[in-house]
């Protein structure tokens, strides 16, 4: 069972081994997520040319795919890298940013789910519900009920909806694809279809800094390399993210200083800070 000791051990393993994580991510967050991985103790590659995907997948420990700013060649790179990583047993983290906001995003998300076999899927409630509905992975009645509970409308990357039934949909999705699903929000819900846990922590100020969700996905990529078990990796990444956010917010005057202190908190996070800043609840 994942607990504070396991989470901190996984953090120490990242710091000790410096996993190399390839990120095909969006223009908005490239610098932010690369610096977060460095602060955590990992090593990022931020590359997107289709011509180099085969070479890069041969040297990295993990892959993070983020569809925040889509273009045709980038989609080609994502599918090429994701397929190669899956075939080689390299963990793939998929962040379906804005799925449901446009047909391109939704169709791309479905293609990546079906062709790249993600190890970890992380998104907000609207994004996860969209992926579940579009892939047909979850029971339609469950999706409809969860959408109704979440308010119905898809707000894309800004969604903070949660509601009854969303964890059931996430479990359906996890079972269908054999992956771990993370629903980010005020509390993060994590399931592999069998186990389900919520991680509560962080700070509301984190919602005022762009790319925090994308950063969480990047951290999942690092932990997926070293933790071995995708569920443990997901819980560890979200717990460390939340704890670092809480520690940073306590020292910050606003969004600008939060980001600065967040990097420092990631770099220096202690077991004691983890224990004080987050709450784990098994469901």
Automatic annotation (TrEMBL):
Please tell me where ATP binds in this chain: 122, 184
Q: What is its EC number?
A: 2.7.1.50
Gene Ontology terms: biological process: thiamine biosynthetic process; thiamine diphosphate biosynthetic process
Question: Keyword Isomerase: yes or no?
Answer: no
- Sorted alphabetically, which SUPFAM superfamilies does this protein's record hold? Ribokinase-like
Cited Gene3D superfamilies: 3.40.1190.20
Q: In which pathway does it act?
A: Cofactor biosynthesis; thiamine diphosphate biosynthesis; 4-methyl-5-(2-phosphoethyl)-thiazole from 5-(2-hydroxyethyl)-4-methylthiazole: step 1/1
Enzyme kind, highest EC tier: transferase
Give the molecular function GO annotations. Answer: ATP binding; hydroxyethylthiazole kinase activity; magnesium ion binding
| A Pfam family of this chain | HK
Positions that bind substrate = 46, 211
Q: Which cofactor does it need?
A: Mg(2+)
Q: Sorted alphabetically, which keywords does the UniProt record give?
A: ATP-binding, Kinase, Magnesium, Metal-binding, Nucleotide-binding, Thiamine biosynthesis, Transferase
Q: Which domain of life is it from?
A: Bacteria
Coiled coil ranges (UniProt) are none
Catalytic activity line of the entry: 5-(2-hydroxyethyl)-4-methylthiazole + ATP = 4-methyl-5-(2-phosphooxyethyl)-thiazole + ADP + H(+)
Family to which the UniProt record says this protein belongs = Belongs to the Thz kinase family.
This molecule's function is given as: Catalyzes the phosphorylation of the hydroxyl group of 4-methyl-5-beta-hydroxyethylthiazole (THZ).
What name has this protein been given in UniProt?
Hydroxyethylthiazole kinase
